[in-house]
Specification:
Strand content: 15-25%
Number of strands: 10
Structural class: alpha+beta
Shape: elongated
Number of helices: 6
Distance between the termini: 112 Å
Order of helices and strands: HEEHEEEEEHEEEHHH
Low-confidence stretches: 1-20, 107-133
Mean pLDDT: 77
């Protein structure tokens, strides 16, 4: 009798232990509006579930998360249908920033937070044809004036932790453009403020294809300059200079063709000028071995 009773209690205890054991979860650090929120979500959660969890927290302080807000994980904008696991979230974070999430909601898409109910705001509904309201820089945000090829300049508002990739995604996509700041191409995961960007500064985007051409021209310029120095210093003979220069001249012709197909623009003219410089350097290298 005692044995049956003890077995029954053990079975109940075992069953309760299974039913009450917590589901595996992810610990997330979510940055939004200049603040950080710590969330814990089941490991089968999606990006959409993450949005819902943050929205529930924000609603307690009369804030709102718009549907157009972008969820950035591991430097990439993530679609709602993806699971957190798909996005690289770790069950056991390898570093303090491993499970960091950024929610980007610029002022142009942010839900309004008026100090009074809508019916009490002065002015009423805007008339048709009125210019759009200027983008307001809120707490924990900054603005950038972006020059986009063939589209002109536009002003965007970003969260303090935004990267250059986030900026590009505001006006296009990282597959289409790259950001240029202080004369340098910037990596998509580099934070803008850490690079010395100041609010309201101007920044230029370049088409990704042109950026790749520019990198090739820069590398070719360095090779041609090295060859010229070697030729003038007698390090290489005329035969080797001729072979190496011929190969580089073929690269110059290929790049000229790519620029021709790439269209016009001040940046393209600058790249064409760089190719002419390379042609002059190679000519000097050939003549250097004849002296």
């Amino acid at each position: 009798c005692h044995l049956r009773t003890n077995l029954s209690k053990l079975s109940q205890s075992f069953d309760c232990g299974i039913m009450s054991s917590p589901r595996p979860s992810y610990k997330l650090s979510v940055g939004f509006g200049g603040k950080t929120y710590d969330l814990s979500l089941p490991q089968d959660s999606s990006v959409k579930d993450l949005r819902a969890a943050l929205s529930a927290i924000l609603s307690q302080s009369s804030q709102a998360l718009s549907d157009s807000a972008k969820v950035v994980i591991k430097g990439k904008v993530r679609h709602d249908s993806l699971t957190l696991s798909d996005c690289g979230i770790e069950a056991e974070p390898s570093s303090a920033n491993a499970n960091k999430v950024m929610i980007l909601q610029s002022a142009k898409s942010a839900a309004p937070r008026p100090s009074a109910p809508p019916e009490e705001l002065p002015g009423g509904e805007p008339e048709k044809g009125d210019p759009p309201a200027p983008l307001v820089v809120g707490e924990g945000q900054f603005a950038a004036v972006v020059s986009v090829p063939k589209k002109g300049a536009t002003r965007v508002v970003l969260e303090e932790g935004a990267t250059f990739g986030d900026l590009v995604n505001e006006v296009g996509s990282t597959a289409e453009y790259v950001a240029l700041f202080k004369g340098k191409k910037r990596e998509n995961d580099e934070k803008m403020l850490n690079a010395g960007f100041k609010s309201e500064q101007k920044i230029m985007l370049m088409q990704a294809q042109r950026s790749h051409i520019a990198q090739n021209i820069s590398a070719l310029h360095a090779k041609a300059t090295t060859l010229r120095k070697q030729a003038l210093n007698g390090v290489v003979d005329s035969a080797e200079v001729s072979i190496r220069a011929s190969g580089m001249e073929e690269e110059v012709l290929e790049l000229h063709e790519k620029l021709r197909l790439g269209g016009s623009g001040s940046d393209m003219e600058s790249l064409r000028s760089s190719l002419k410089d390379i042609e002059g350097i190679l000519k000097a290298a050939r003549e250097g071995t004849r002296q």
